[in-house]
Amino acid sequence: MKHKGAWPPFFKLIAMSTIDVAFSPAIFERYHIDGKIVVVVDILRATSVICTMFQNGVKEIIPVRDIAEAKEYKNKGYLVVAERNGQKLDFADFGNSPFYFTPEVIAGKTVVYSTTNGTNAITIGKSAQEVIIASFLNISAIQSYLQSRANDVLIMCAGWKGKFCLEDALFAGAMSQNLIHSGKFETICDSTNAAIDLWNVARNDLNRYIEKVAQRHRLKKLGLDDVIDYCLTPDLTDVIPVLNNDRLVSLL
After folding, report:
1. Would the pLDDT of 9 be above 70?
2. Of 41, 104, 125, 130, which residue is least crowded by CB atoms under 10 Å?
């Protein structure tokens, strides 16, 4: 029998949101970002540090790309976290380890933050409708937040100096797969599917797979690899850091 008039509600197709993955900020401009939520990921270590700081009560974080700008903030009396190539810069108050940022150190404070890769990705992404910060530490909270919205998503991996890195791609695969399994997202993006495939190769023994990661060995050479297990631990916090103008604040 031919149906006349509008389809009843149960015949309507449910529009799903899409997921894209950019493996480096260097290709960010190739993606259309109108109406999208950009999820910035730098597992080792920037976004893991940011999530830790908000979990421990930081008021806000000012991400800056340039060392000169970070120095200007330091001269104005701000607490500054700054590193390049994994190492703390001489004028900075702290390097880039989540273990430095206890509640006693940062609760209620504004922190200026400048890193090799993560803050570059954050500041590049600010032209998007919304930029949020993700890590394994807050993966479930981010996924729930994205599922509650109707926006398409671009996961932007910070990478290493414009190049691909495994740890960010693995996280992108984990998050993408979980969002697709929620039934609210889909993808036709090759990068997303590649990230999902990588995640499924690594997921059953992630710590062993991480031995392949170049950043893991950079940190080991500097004696800073004590953060690896921590940065791979899921769901230590429910914080959702979001970029508000030029500052990161927590939605919670």
Report:
1. no
2. 104
Answer yes or no: are the C-beta atoms of 167 and 130 closer than 8 Å. no
Q: Domains of the chain by range and CATH?
A: 16-245 (3.90.1560.10)
**Rounded to an integer, what distance in angstroms lies between the CA atom of residue 51 and that of residue 146?**
17
Query: Over the chain, what HEC string results?
Result: CCCCCCCCHHHCCCCCEEEEEECCHHHHHHCCCCCCEEEEECCCCHHHHHHHHHHCCCCEEEECCCHHHHHHHHHCCCEEEEEECCEECCCCCECCCHHHCCHHHHCCCEEEEECCCHHHHHHHHHHCCEEEEECHHHHHHHHHHHHCCCCCEEEEECCECCECCHHHHHHHHHHHHHHHHCCCEECCCHHHHHHHHHHHHHHHHHHHHHHHCHHHHHHHHCCCHHHHHHHCCCCCCCCCEEEECCEEEECC
Dist. CA 1–CA 125, nearest whole Å: 51
For the entire predicted model, the pTM comes to 0.93
Q: How confident is the model at residue 126 (pLDDT cuts 50, 70, 90)?
A: confident
Per-residue model confidence as pLDDT tens digits over 37-61: 999 999 999 999 999 999 999 999 9
How far apart are the C-alpha atoms of 212 and 22, rounded to whole Å? 21
